[in-house]
Design a protein that fits this description.
Layout (H helix, E strand, L loop, with lengths): L1 H9 L16 E6 L3 H13 L5 E5 L8 E5 L4 H10 L3 E6 L2 H9 L6 H13 L15 H14 L4 E8 L5 E7 L7 E7 L6 H17 L4 H9 E6 L4 H7 L6 H4 L9 E4 L4 E4 L35 H11 L5 E11 L1 E4 L12 H19 L4 E4 H4 L7 H9 L3 E10 L13 H40 L7 H7 L3 H4 L1 H8 L12
Helix pairs in contact: 5-6, 7-15, 11-14, 12-15
The protein binds zinc ion.
Family: Belongs to the peptidase M14 family.
InterPro entries: M14A-like_propep, M14A_act_pep, Peptidase_M14, ShKT_dom
GO molecular function, one term: zinc ion binding
Length: about 500
């Protein structure tokens, strides 16, 4: 508590802050904790800091591991003094974030008139209905309309699904690919649970675009459509995403991470602080609130009042649970750091029983991803490669639904890059392409395993048919005189009268 008071006081607004123009002067500090004490201090700050003042882009994880923090203009002076006072090694990685946003994303359309034109084109141009120009960001309404148009025009391969409704009343939409039969395995891919991670939303949209436009000439995609059921939900947190688009050059809006749930308050040691939003990826019922999450509503990692308190996470967990038993892989796309994360992330060296298989496929996926452009990913559990956290969707899915392959992917750039969430637009398509290459490793595993189990089944069925005969000649007579004999003496009848009793499918081979 004392530390929190000190930190809060340190980050209090200086007198000149109100003269700054909205969004001017946001800086990103790269801090290097070099001792255990500094690391613990940074972790404490990460868990308690108000997002409005200090927003962690790259969380503290290990001694000598960099921490990236976006600091609001009215607090940069005090923050710098604080770092110097405590002997931190640091540099200012981004001098003026607003300028960088204008430079990198300045031509991104967030105007409703542009959206209206795009929607009109989407509606009128029948030949264009399935193709979205990639390398761009789109509003949620454009993305939703696009999903609807695909489902309307390609009912043979895609079906529109509604996972739930957000706190602000938006439908959380996705597409279901492939013909569903009860024996098929299911894969779910989502993105955008964290609002500011636009590259993840673009990547999921790219996957959809690729599937609907390349399927005819791409045997691999056709193979997936024939053999698995694939769900893609490109924006799990549409309220947050739309909020990040309200002012494209204001870091306070653009760098919003949470949902847009109503204000909650908590006493932070100095005052009663009230803020909107919950980190939905800390709100799942897996070791809720244990670690890497915050009970302060103004923190960017605020876990909410209780597990599944939020309509988005609750609805999504119910959707995933409805697929239990068939859901073989679950992949959630985030940015950034170039990591392929698997369970469990709340504590080091805590794994599910099938960790060897999980790790094998992750290693293969990372290798395949890197083959495209040489991008280097690391794989491991949260505490092994980034930091410990609880309440995340993949850990919940792994533990509760026993999903074989449950992965969180942190996309480009690497954690050593200084531009973080502001990915250069010319990196968007390569990011999506290489991620698809990694994801296909998981899709191939699920598809091939299902196909080989089908082959095994049909081979067994063939052998059973070959062996399907009566060992004794009196079977028909027995059945006539005792109609229930096949059921009552089943094991004997499988051996002696399998054909007459229609029990060939139960012959042991
Ligand atoms: Zn994220």
């Amino acid at each position: 508590m004392i530390l929190r008071v000190i930190l809060t006081v340190i980050l209090l607004c200086i007198a000149t802050c109100h003269s700054l123009e909205k969004g001017d002067g946001f800086q990103v500090f790269r801090v290097l904790p070099t001792t255990n004490q500094q690391l613990l201090q940074m972790i404490r700050l990460f868990e308690t800091a108000d997002t409005d003042r200090a927003d962690f882009w790259h969380a503290p994880s290990v001694v000598n591991g960099t921490v990236d923090i976006m600091v609001a203009p009215e607090h940069t002076g005090q923050f710098q003094k604080y770092l110097e006072k405590h002997g931190y090694t640091y540099q200012i990685a981004i001098q003026d974030l607003r300028t960088l946003l204008i430079e990198k994303e300045g031509n991104i359309s967030t105007h409703s008139t542009d959206d209206a034109f795009f929607m009109k084109r989407l509606h009128d141009d029948v030949g264009f209905h399935s193709r979205l120009r990639m390398g761009e960001y789109y509003s949620y309404s454009v993305l939703s309309t696009w999903l609807q148009r695909i489902a309307e025009n390609m009912p043979d391969i895609a079906k529109l699904i509604k996972v739930g409704t957000t706190i602000e009343g938006r439908d959380i939409l996705g597409l279901k690919f492939g013909k569903d039969t009860p024996d098929k395995k299911v894969v779910v891919i989502d993105a955008g649970i964290h609002a500011r991670e636009w590259a993840a939303i673009h990547t999921a949209s790219y996957f959809i675009n690729l599937i609907v436009n390349s399927r005819e000439g791409d045997p691999q995609i056709q193979n997936y459509l024939d053999n698995i059921v694939l769900y893609i939900i490109p924006v799990l947190n549409p309220d947050g995403y739309e909020y990040t688009r309200t002012d494209k050059t204001n870091p306070r809006a653009r760098m919003w991470r949470k949902s847009r749930s109503p204000k909650a308050c908590a006493f932070d040691g100095v005052r009663n602080s009230c803020c909107m939003g919950v980190d939905l990826n800390r709100n799942f019922d897996f070791r809720f609130s244990e670690i890497g999450a915050s009970r302060y509503p103004c923190s960017e990692i605020y876990h909410g009042p209780s597990a599944f308190s939020e309509p988005e996470s609750k609805a999504y967990s119910q959707f995933l649970a409805s697929l239990k038993g068939r859901l073989e892989a679950y992949i959630t796309l985030h940015s950034y750091s170039q990591l392929w994360i698997y369970s469990y992330s709340h504590r080091k060296f805590t794994y599910a029983p099938d960790i060897d298989e999980t790790r094998r496929v992750a290693a293969k996926a990372v290798q395949e991803l890197g083959r495209m452009y040489g991008t280097k990913y690391r794989h491991g559990t949260g505490p092994e490669i980034i930091y410990a956290f609880s309440g995340g969707s993949t850990d919940w899915a792994k533990e509760t639904l026993k999903i074989k392959y449950s992965y969180t992917i942190e996309l480009r750039p690497g954690y050593e890059e200084w531009n973080g969430f502001v990915l250069d637009k010319n990196q968007l398509i390569p990011t999506a392409k290489e991620t698809w290459a990694g994801v296909t490793v998981v899709l191939d595993e699920v598809t091939n395993q299902w196909k080989s189990s089908k082959n095994r089944e049909s081979e067994l069925s063939r052998i059973r048919q070959e062996k399907c005969s009566d060992r004794l000649s009196g079977c028909a007579y027995w059945l006539q005189s005792s109609p229930n004999i096949c059921r009552i003496s089943q094991s004997t009848m499988i051996r002696d009268c399998a054909k007459t009793c229609d029990l060939c499918h139960m012959i042991t081979v």
